Amino acid sequence: MVEVNFTPHIIHLRDLLELFWNSHHPDNINDYKGNQYKSLVLYRDEEQRRAAEELMEQRKQSGKGRPKTELAPFQAFYQAEDRHQKYYLQRYPDAMNKLSLLYPTQEEQTDSTLAARLNGMAKGYTNLGRIIEEIAVWPISEGQRNNMISLIRQIRW
Predict the structure, then answer these.
(1) pLDDT tens-digit profile of 106-136?
(2) Which residue of 17, 37, 50, 110 is surrounded by the most CB atoms within 10 Å?
């Protein structure tokens, strides 16, 4: 499960839902079946529920098909166990060791945008050049930025 915190006047829920439904196949995620792999959108209020329902219906009407995604009210969010955090990145001990210099605790690594982006890279969703371009616009000091870039360039993949 992924919890997305967003600012509605910057990005709309509908845009996030479109990205969600364009990025996975709700019928059979990663060839797994079962309740723990179902497609689910949790809404926090009636406005979010209505927006999701309307978009699902629009997708059906446009020929994309109504996503087989369950809608349910949000109740609580629980982080995955440590063994599931940054799952693909954990396969690269040198990367984990280098990141521990920036983020010494498991909690800091779990919350780290850099670790999340490197995890995506380890899975093949991005590359080092793109991550470095992203870091260039992060709201951090120049010293932090240079330190991060230097460190990730040293990782032995």
Answers:
(1) 999 999 999 999 999 999 999 999 999 999 9
(2) 17
- Tokens for 152, please give them: 């990730």
CA distances from 117 to 132, 134, 135 (A): 10, 10, 10
Q: Kindly give the interhelix angle for 93-102 and 113-123, rounded to the nearest 10 degrees.
A: 170
CB-based contact 154:98 (threshold 8 Å): yes
Contact present, 3 and 40 (Cβ < 8 Å): no
Task: Tell the residue number behind the tokens 């990205």, with chain if given.
Answer: 19
Stated pTM of the model: 0.70
